[in-house]
Protein: Coenzyme A biosynthesis bifunctional protein CoaBC
Organism: Salinispirillum marinum
Amino acid sequence: SDAALLSGKRVVITAGPTREAIDPVRYLTNHSSGKMGYALADQAARMGADVTLISGPVTLPTPTNVTRINVTSAREMAQAAEKSALRADLFIGAAAVADYHVANAETQKHKKQSGQTGWTLQLAENPDIIARIARHEQRPGIVVGFAAETADVVHYAQDKLQRKNLDWIVANDVSRSDIGFNSDDNQVVVFGRDGQQFDLPQQSKSQLAGALLALFMKD
Ligand code: C5P
C-alpha cells in the first residue's frame, strides 16, 4: 500500500491562481481552481507527509493535516515558497502563477477621466518561482512542475522541464473543457528528466494525485 510512502517526508505545494492588483478594487488573474494542487496536498498528507500548501485565492477547504499559507500575488507566493520549500523532499508547483504584474498599479481606485477613451496597463515580469527553487543551492530533492497548454503540449512541456531544471513535468491540455481548469477530472502526460514518459488515463484529480505522488517518490 502507499499509505506510508511519504512518512517523514516534507512536501511543499503551490496551488491556485495568483491575483495581480491593478488598483485597490481591480486585479488580473486566470481560471485556475486550485483543485489539482489541493488534491495533491490532501493525498500527500494521507500518505504520511508533512505538507505545506502555499495557496493563491481559491474557494476550496484546507485538506486535513495540511499547513496552508495564503498568498495573493506571485511575488508573495515566491517569498512564501522560498521560506518553506528549500531543502524539502518534494516541491510541486501546481499554481497557475501570473507571468506578469501591473507595474503601474495605482494606490487609489482609478477614476475614469472625461475625454480619455483608454487606460494603458504596463506589465512587468514576475519571478519564475519554480525555476528559482530548482536552481537554488538548497534545492528540494525532487521538483515537479505543471504545464497547462492549449497546443503543442509535448513540445512546450519538454522545453519547460529543461529550462526550469525540473525532475518531472505534468502536462495537460487546457483547451479541453472536460479536463484541466476547474474540472474534477484530469488526464495528463508526465515527462521525466531522463526521458521517461507516462500517459495517465483520465481520472478524478484525487486518484490522479495518488498516482502522481507514487510515481515521483518511486526510488
Ligand atoms: O511557464 P509556465 O507558467 O507555463 O510554467 C508552468 C510551471 O511553472 C508550473 O509548475 C507553475 O507553477 C510554475 N511557475 C512558477 N512561477 C511562475 C510561472 C510558472 O512557479 N512565475
